[in-house]
Amino acid sequence: MSNETLHRLSAFAEQAGGGNPAGVWVGDTLPDAATMRRIAAEVGYSETAFVAPARGRERTIRYFSPEAEVSFCGHATIATGIVLGEAEGAGRYRLLTAVGEVSVAVTEEGGRLRAALTSVLPRFERPSAELLAGALELLGWRSDELDRTIRPARAWAGAWHLVLAARERTRLDTLDYDFDALKALMLDHDLTTLQLIWRESATAFHARDPFPVGGVVEDPATGAAAAAFGGYLREARLVEAPTRFTIRQGEAMGRPSVLVVDVPAEGGIVVSGGAVPI
């Protein structure tokens, strides 16, 4: 007899209606890729996580958007941590992803569960002139609107993201781009999202993340991008580790989300948050 459950949660939500919805499928064995993609399309969220076996502290996990498999997804990992914590209690779970082991620590705070993922070892590189020029043109951004203290970067902590930092917050107020053209550019350069950020202070950032490769205009909370960004700041020596900062995302979409990023002196980046059932 099969032992399969499908959960729907909103990760990184601080209030009802906030956060990023994710599906979490848990079963004895993972379905084939075509079935997982079909289920993800039926769920309709930006990502659904598929987890097996049904019990235990070590699981295999794969992530699918309605259009394709994703190498790593942060908000679906946080949602998975909450599902596992509700089923088996607080503690640390080992998730075996396509890019390596990601641990999730589940704790109870004030009667609510929170999950903290530790990413694989991050890295970054400078984007090509072609990628940078193409992204700025499609976004309608000018190069003089960029924050010169946080240079553009391709950042990775399980998936690649293009980090573009705006000098002024007003630059993030408008997000208008050619969906198909940006999707094509991102696919050509193996990008999952664009991490468009503005630094409010040393410990507070705001972000918007176009996600056309996943079939959505904008992602309301992107844990994988947060981990990649934290790794970039450390590796480029733009912060002194260890440090902690928050990223507020999804506000312009009416889905306010808060991601807490802990940057240790070495190793993976820790991204934490809660999740509420949908």
List keywords for this structure.
about 280 residues, alpha+beta, Diaminopimelate Epimerase, Chain A, domain 1, 2 domains, eight-stranded mixed barrel, 17 strands
Overview of this structure, please?
This protein has 278 residues and is α+β, with helices and mostly antiparallel strands. The chain folds into two domains: 114 residues, Diaminopimelate Epimerase, Chain A, domain 1 (Roll), CATH 3.10.310; 149 residues, Diaminopimelate Epimerase, Chain A, domain 1 (Roll). Helices cover 22% and strands 40% of the residues. It is built from five helices and 17 strands. The protein has an eight-stranded mixed beta barrel with strand order 1-2-3-4-6-7-8-17. Strand 3 and strand 4 form a beta hairpin. Helix 2 packs across helix 5 and helix 3 packs antiparallel against helix 4. The longest helix has 15 residues. It is globular and about 55 Å long. The model has no long low-confidence stretch (mean pLDDT 96).
Mean of residue pLDDT? 96
Q: Would you tell me the structural class of the helices and strands?
A: alpha+beta
Helix content: 10-25%
Radius of gyration: 18 Å
Instruction: Summarize the main sheet.
Output: 8 strands, mixed, barrel
Sheet with the most strands: spatial strand order: 1-2-3-4-6-7-8-17
H/E element order: EEHEEEHEEEEHEEHEEEHEEE
Number of structurally distinct domains:
2
**DSSP helix count?**
5
CATH superfamily of the largest domain: Diaminopimelate Epimerase, Chain A, domain 1
CATH class of the largest domain: Alpha Beta
Q: Kindly identify the CATH topology of the largest domain.
A: Diaminopimelate Epimerase, Chain A, domain 1
Q: Regions with pLDDT < 50 over 5+ consecutive residues?
A: none
How many DSSP-defined strands? Answer: 17
Distance between the termini: 27 Å
- SS strand fraction: 35-45%
CATH architecture of the largest domain: Roll
Shape: globular
